[in-house]
Batch of 3 targets.
Target 1
Amino acid sequence: MMAIINDTTLRDGEQTAGVAFTADEKIALARELDDIGVPEMEVGIPAMSSEETEVIQHISTLGLDARLIVWGRMCEQDVMAARKCHVGFANLSVPVSDIHIEHKLRKDRNWILDQIRQYVPMALDMGMDVCVGCEDASRADMDFLLKVLETAQQAGAWRLRFADTLGLLDPFETRSCIRQLCSAADIGIEMHAHNDLGLATANTLAAINAGATYVNTTVNGLGERAGNAPLEEVVMGLRHLYGIETGINTQRLCEVSQLVTTISGRMIAPNKCIVGSAVFTHESGIHVDGLLKNAINYEGFSPSELGRSHSTVLGKHSGSHAVMDAYGRMGITLTSEELLVIIDRIRMHAMRTKRNPNPEDLERFYLESAFGLTTLTS
């Protein structure tokens, strides 16, 4: 198995409702993604505006190592717009489900195939490689999807994108669909997963397992509705589940995550896996005890892979080992009686204030316990 990341934060990520990157922000993010080793990135939609085209043109002059891709519809207007960007690769998207063909386009299946036959060669003649993007592929008839694949191959397409546009698949169905495509394909197959049911990462990994070579991601899972498969989750999942290295510098994933948080205005939850601020923070007494003995007891992979370290906090679920360790680091050795009193004090504090005690709180609890200074309060 192998996997090539095609990150689409600059295109699909920016399609998040209410998110709009400035030109400078897009350029800065393109540089960052390139710096961490993202091999491909989808940088925008040329047909959207002349300003968008200018930004893409600017990115194309930066000398980035990543392969740059633009997105467009399977039509002459978008092919011509892509041509102006001086980017050698275009994803030309066309609906493939009967729902979209009939109710959005008001066309038929033959019209879809004719579009592919007409516009893929046009883009090739303009010097661009082409990926045929299959919108709503997860709701398409598989026999027709195989016909789309055959037509795309005959037209000279270099890749076919399977888009789970509404995030409706589970990993088992994803694997079945991608396997069927891969078994019939002489070109690359790419997975584009959305997260409406919380399965974008799982479906992306299932697609790789089934033979897809390329996968779309976005930093922090940014994207329309519930977003896309998060770059950080896919990269770390590939490493630890399949032993696949993507060439991306994981030490800087949190840095890029923070950049996207800033320029998108979309915060991530503290417990967001991989990049959340609290995902290597431990409170439970059993967990902290095991962690203090050997980190591998409660860490499936080292936070150092992400340039991070684990930490422990005290709270309602803390046990004696964690409390003694915290006070030991403050230079305080607790008696058994003091320990019992302070554990109760910590738990009361956590329930009353809904926060973990800070060093000043811990010092106060110790003084109350050791010297009976009961006039001090939280």
Note: The first helix runs from residue 23 to 35.
Target 2
Amino acid sequence: MMKKILAGILLALLCLHDAAIQAARTFGGASTDRIALSTYVTNHATTTWSIWSYRTGDGGGSFGRMWFKGSTAFDGRLYTTTTKYFFDRESSTSDGTWSITRPSASVWHHILVTYDSGALGNDPAIYLDGTSQTLQDNTNPTGTISNNSEAYTIGNFLNGGSPSQNWAGSLSEFAVWDVILNQGEITALARGISPMNIRLANLKCFIPITGIHTTEPDYSSATTKSIGTVTGATLTAHNPPVQSVFWNFGESQNDVTSDTSAVPFIFLHRRRN
């Protein structure tokens, strides 16, 4: 136990600089603004995607992307139109497309999607600020679910490698798990708990988007980290309502709303706006 405590204190001290000044990045100053991840190309049978978003407009082509997996083709994407937020999952014959009414602009919102691609008839679940939303425009994929080996891009769409549909606004805390999180965990994330405290062993990509590094580091449990190369997206002064350092010395809580077994965290550096 003492080794875990000392390791946790050391990690917290190493993260203190980021936690003290972390904010987010703003996209849309140019149509090429983006964060391109280097090595995270894996598709999972069950997946949870999480991101904090602050929208100021419709983005490039009125299809601003929060995240996009693929380059010459796509596997999945989360984006806005003028009225809705869409989640798409590509398939060989026709793509799965689902949407929710988009939330208010110029406010931080937590957007989370869970999806089981094991059966074509499965629908995703889309959560806004921790609450499951009614799906609209529901079209199930047909054929074979796409599983390419192309990486993620945050804040833009790469069509053959040419960015053209930048997000308009700010993004922070992009995370991917290879499991479907439960409601307690989803609620915790929407309340500002760090992804590092939610099933760390299953956290396969976590880009906090601190805005203070030349590249954006990956704090997930993955053996090979996926570095985010930044193009254009700049540090923004307004923080998302999250807690940068929430570390329980190596233990991961499965349901932070009911499980009291974890050791308390030691830093809550960022406060709600």
Note: The CA atoms of residues 248 and 263 lie 5 Å apart.
Target 3
Amino acid sequence: MISRESIRLLICAFGAALLVTFRLPAGAQALVPELRVDSAVATAGYYRLSWRPADITVSGLEYQLQESTSPDFLRASTIYQGPDLASVLSGRSDALRYYRIRSLRNGQAASPWSTPLQVETRHHPLARAIGFFVFGAFVFVSTLLLVVRGSRAIPEGRSPTRG
């Protein structure tokens, strides 16, 4: 029977072999940007994706941002490439989308892709929007009637501020 210590040793050796086999270029892992979103569920029709470099001492990096409708990114499209650290997306229809980013140096991949980020676009229901409009119209008309009625109650030639 194999001891626990032998199993641990085998697991460590296997992990080390994987690291050596699939090793990233020197410093590449340190350049993976951290991707964030201001709202995981966007109901206003827009949202802001932002990222920051993992190592702020590295300069001259560009970033490549990709969007996909599937978490495996088989049909991904690049929606931004450049030096900026944020992007505002608007006009998206209701759907679940995935985003990932990587840093580039001189147009070549300098880092692996970041951990994918999921954003759901779910607009407010039309009934709610119409309800807000009707309520706003009611408040406007009520205020207008109050002002007109109040102005008729003041005798002509008298100022409302003087008695």
Note: Confidence is low (pLDDT under 50) at residues 18-28.
